[in-house]
Design a protein that fits this description.
By secondary structure, the chain is an alpha/beta fold. Helices cover 41% and strands 16% of the residues. Helix 8 packs parallel to helix 9 and helix 11 packs across helix 12. It binds nicotinamide-adenine-dinucleotide. Nicotinamide-adenine-dinucleotide binds next to loops.
């Protein structure tokens, strides 16, 4: 039976890595009806908007989607399409495996971390007030009237909501995954010493859920986010499964991507209730767009996660093993995986994908 999957190629390097992923996934023999939908700059050029209701409907209908990265203009213009998709589809759990593959250039070896980032709230919720607007003035005046701490008149304001329900939901998702996958330790990351009410609530809610999993062989502990960054760099092997609020999850997962060979390697998945959207951790790297240059591995490994989700475990294993073989050999790989960036044996995005197909 063929699976129906929404494919969002994205923009920048997105269409290139998405084509590479599609080639490899199809080469496993699994039949997929791809429902290709335009988003980002490609759609802006046609309609003036980076996201359409049709895209969201397609994902709701197919229940499984995979995407390339999408550009978000900094400080102006449109809200992030990624954030809009996560919120519209309530994709509350972002899972980012950080797994060492032999042959990659890494500061340490054999890291095997799983990161769960809460995807719907925190400073990422998009509740922002621009300096000089009546809304910002009103909010500032209201806060200044009730808070001992005062906000300056030349400040913009972003709001950080953290709820019991969303914190418990991500923790339960992470603990279920850890228990099912034979993991032993779940670490809650926070800054509750400073943000006592928001991060404090995240820590309390997650700790309560963690109690329910003690008899399922899980040890639950917590570490403050800044200390965690240092410990991850020095002793990443001490850690196993991490659970973070949205913003720390975004930052710490890039740090962990660096531990396993960089953004070109790191895959990701966003899960909601019955819906899953897979994507590489990296962005649209506009300076490399259209050059057939960047590493397709992160998007291809996102395809591996998608195949597992579709219960095509044999195909997922076959594709992952082919990726492993190509990385281990280190011959037909993109520039970022070579010691010397002028190495004449460097291959392009599509050529690396074709080499992976030949290994299956
Ligand atoms: P980026 O991840 O696009 O690129 C940063 C650098 O990482 C690149 O210049 C390149 O050196 C390297 N890199 C990234 N992907 C690579 C790959 N596949 N192979 C080899 N090297 C790779 O981050 P950025 O420059 O901060 O962001 C560019 C745009 O992407 C922004 O608009 C940002 O908002 C957006 N973005 C989108 C997503 C998403 O769609 N999920 C995620 C992150 C950033």
């Amino acid at each position: 039976m063929a699976h129906n999957v929404t494919l969002l190629p994205g923009d920048g390097i997105g269409p290139e890595v998405a084509s590479a992923m599609r080639l490899c996934v199809e080469h496993t023999g699994v039949k997929i009806n791809w429902d290709v939908q335009e988003v980002g700059e490609v759609l802006i050029a046609k309609t003036g908007q980076p996201l359409s209701e049709g895209v969201i409907e397609s994902i709701r209908h197919n229940k499984t989607a995979i995407k390339g990265p999408i550009t978000t203009p900094i400080g102006k213009g449109f809200r992030s399409v990624n954030v809009q998709l996560r919120q519209a589809l309530d994709l509350f759990a972002c899972a980012r495996p950080c797994h060492y593959y032999e042959g990659t250039k890494t500061p340490v070896k054999n890291v095997n971390l799983m990161i769960f980032r809460e995807n719907t709230e925190d400073l990422y919720a998009g509740i922002e007030f621009e300096l000089g607007t009546p809304e910002c003035d009103k909010l500032r005046d209201s806060i200044n009237a009730t808070s001992a701490r005062k906000i300056k008149s030349d400040a913009a304001i972003s709001i950080k909501p953290i709820s019991v329900s969303a914190s418990k939901r991500i923790m339960r998702f992470a603990c279920d995954w850890a228990a099912k996958n034979g993991r032993k330790r779940v670490t809650i990351i926070h800054k509750a010493n400073i943000m006592k009410f928001t991060d404090g609530l995240f820590l309390k809610s997650c700790t309560e859920v963690g109690e329910e999993y003690k008899d399922r062989g899980l040890t639950v502990d917590n570490v403050i986010v800044d200390a965690m960054c240092m410990q991850l760099v020095q002793w990443p092997h001490l850690f196993d499964t991490l659970v973070l609020p949205n913003l720390y999850g975004d930052i710490v997962s890039d740090l962990c991507a660096g531990l396993v060979g960089g953004l070109g390697i790191a895959p990701g998945a966003n899960y909601g209730d019955g819906i899953a959207l897979f994507e590489p951790v990296h962005g649209s790297a506009p300076k490399y767009a259209g050059q057939n240059k960047v590493n397709p591995t992160a998007c291809i490994l996102s395809g591996v996660l998608m195949l597992k989700h579709l219960k095509e475990d044999a195909a997922a294993e076959k594709l992952e093993n082919a990726v492993k073989a190509i990385l281990r050999e280190g011959k037909e790989v993109t520039y970022d995986l070579k010691e010397n960036r002028n190495d004449p044996s460097i291959v392009g995005t599509m050529q690396m994908a074709e080499a992976i197909c030949r290994k299956m």
